[in-house]
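FORM 7B: Structural annotation worksheet

SECTION A. Query
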Amino acid sequence: MTATDLPTGARRPSPLARAKALPAWSLIAAGALAGGLLGGVYGLAKPPAYTATAYVVAVPTEKSDSASALGFAQAYGRVATQVAVLGDAQVWAGVPVRTLKSSVQTATSPDAPMVSITATSARPDLAADMANAVSRALTRHANDTKGATNVQLQQFARATEPTEPSSASPAVTGLVGASAGGLLGGLVLLARPRRSGSGRDQGHPASVPAPAVAAEAHGQL
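SECTION B. Predicted structure
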């Protein structure tokens, strides 16, 4: 039926009414589609990130033991990202301290006297340079006090230049966005008001049987 075929005085249904007439699953499908598109665009627009990791190990001297080395490894992991260490590392990495502060993370193990130093950058070569620079500076600071701590820090493994980005690909971000969009659509579907009953049931109270007439009642006694 075209616009000219509408009866006189009839109005077209509003966009809101047409949206309400759509099936319930359309909200979930629309949310998943929109989320997938936004996630894919985000994955394409965001530059890839590369991660490189260097490892240093705490070794006890003759006057110490492995338990002390493990304890100092935990302490070295906490001070590796302090300004005293990063101030020296910036010279070898060629980046300011604030860049190292935001790009370098450390981790320790409760079972092994080892410290991992991980750097992230948009350039794979810079990620490896930052990780190696911090590990070198940390080793130097730790060995300056090995006469008092009886523990020395040695390089266990140098960071190598990564060949693949560690950040999520556009396909992955698209899938994540689609999942989030579908979930949001489902929540909207649950939160929207329920449709009222059919027009046949609206405004018509339930019928009540009429009372029996007196004659019928008298005949049944």
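SECTION C. Observations
DSSP finds nine helices and four strands in the chain. The beta strands are 50-60, 104-108, 114-121, 151-157.

SECTION D. Sign-off
Analyst initials: ____
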